[in-house]
Amino acid sequence: MDNIEGKTAFVTGAAGGIGLSISHSLARQGANVVLADTNVDNLSTARDDLERSGANVTSVICDVVSPADMEQAAQHTIDSFGKVHIVVNNAGVSLGGQTGSIPLQDWRWIVDINLMGVVYGTEIFTPLIRSHGEGGHVVNTASMAGHWAARYLGPYNATKFAVVGYTETIRQELADDGIGASVLCPGWVRTNIHKASLKRPSAAGNETPSVDMVAFSQVAAEVESGIDPDVVGDWVVDCIRARRFYIFTHPEMAPLSMRGPT
Ligand SMILES: NC(=O)c1ccc[n+]([C@@H]2O[C@H](COP(=O)([O-])OP(=O)(O)OC[C@H]3O[C@@H](n4cnc5c(N)ncnc54)[C@H](O)[C@@H]3O)[C@@H](O)[C@H]2O)c1
Asked: Which ligand 1 atom is at minimum distance from the Cα of 144?
C-alpha cells in the first residue's frame, strides 16, 4: 500500500522490542496505531510515549492465545478508528531445549503464542480489512529461524517455519482483495526475546536455569549483540509500502537457509 497516512494499524507485541519500533514507524508515517500486548505496564508507557509524540494511538490488553481477546481487540480498533487496514501479528516468545527433554506443556505454550496468535490475528482481522474495500496489508512476524533449523531450537523453529508457510498461503488468497501480505524474518535484533522463555510454564517457581536454558544462552548472546529494533521498524514500514513479501533484516544470513544439517 503506497500511502499509510490516515490508515489504521493494529500491532501485537507492541509494548516492546520489534513491535514497539514498528508502531513508532507506522505512527511517523501518519497511521493511527492500536497497540496490543499482555504487558500492562509497558503497554501504557508505550501508549503515553506515542501520544506525547503526537500520534493517534490507543492500546488494548490482548493475549494473542485468546480468540476472545483478539475479537475484543478488533472491536476496540473499529470503535477507536472506524476501520482497520494494517495488521502486524508480531507477538512471540522463545523456547529452546534438547529434543526428548522439552516439557510438552512448554511446546503447547509456544505453539499457542507464536503460531495460533498469528492465525487468530489473521482470521479475525482480514474480514474487517476486506469489508471496506480500500485494501490493506498483513505482516506476520516469523524469523530467520523460519528458514534455518538449528540445534536446541526445535519448538521455536517449528512455529516460525509454520508462520512462513502460512503467510505464503494467505498472500495468494488476500491478493484477490487487494490486501498485501509480508512475512518478517529478522536475524538477531536487540530485544528481550531470549528472556521470554523464562516465562514458559515449566519454569514457574524455578529460579535455577535448566541445562536446556544454558544451551539456549548462545541465542541470548546473539540477541544482545543484535541490530537496533528501530532499524527493523522503519524497514518493515518501507516494505509494507513497497508490498514486499519477504522482509529480511540480515541478508548475510540468507545462505543459512540453504544449508543442510550440520
Ligand atoms: N529479537 C530477535 O532477534 C528476533 C529474531 C527473529 C524473530 N523475532 C520475533 O520478533 C517478534 C517480536 O519479538 P521481540 O524480539 O520484539 O521480543 P520482545 O520480547 O522484546 O517483545 C515481544 C512482545 O510481545 C509481547 N507478548 C508476548 N507474549 C504475548 C502474548 N501472548 N500476547 C500478546 N503479547 C505478547 C511481550 O509482552 C513483548 O512486549 C517475535 O515474534 C519474535 O519471535 C525476534
From this structure: 6
Q: Looking at the domain assignment, is residue 3 inside a domain?
A: no
The pick from 164, 193, 197, 224 for probing ligand 1's pocket by mutation, whose C-beta has the most ligand atoms within 8 angstroms, reads: 193
Number of H helices, E strands in the chain: 8, 7
- The DSSP call for residue 226 is S
* Residue 34 belongs to a domain: yes
| Type and span of the H or E element at 136 | strand 136-141
Q: Which pLDDT belongs to residue 138?
A: 98
Ligand 1 pocket test, pick from 191, 219, 230 with the greatest ligand atom count within 8 Å of Cβ, gives 191
147 assigned to some structural domain: yes
**All cell numbers assigned to 95:** 523456547
Residue 128 lies in domain: 8-247
Residue 15, exposed/middle/buried by CB under 10 A (0-12, 13-18, 19+)?
A: buried
Q: What is the pTM of this model?
A: 0.96
| 100 alpha carbon – ligand 1 mean position (Å) | 26
Confidence check: pLDDT of 261 > 70: no
Residue 262 lies in a domain: no
Binding site membership of 96 for ligand 1 (Cβ less than 6 Å) = no
Measured in Å, residue 93 CA sits from the centre of ligand 1 at: 5
Provide, rounded to the nearest whole percent, the portion of the chain with pLDDT above 90.
84
pLDDT tens-digit map of 40-84: 999 999 999 999 999 999 999 999 999 999 999 999 999 999 999
- pLDDT at 219 (0 to 100): 82
Q: What is the CATH number of the domain that holds 149?
A: 3.40.50.720
pLDDT of residue 214: 58
> Based on the structure, what is the number of domains in the chain?
1
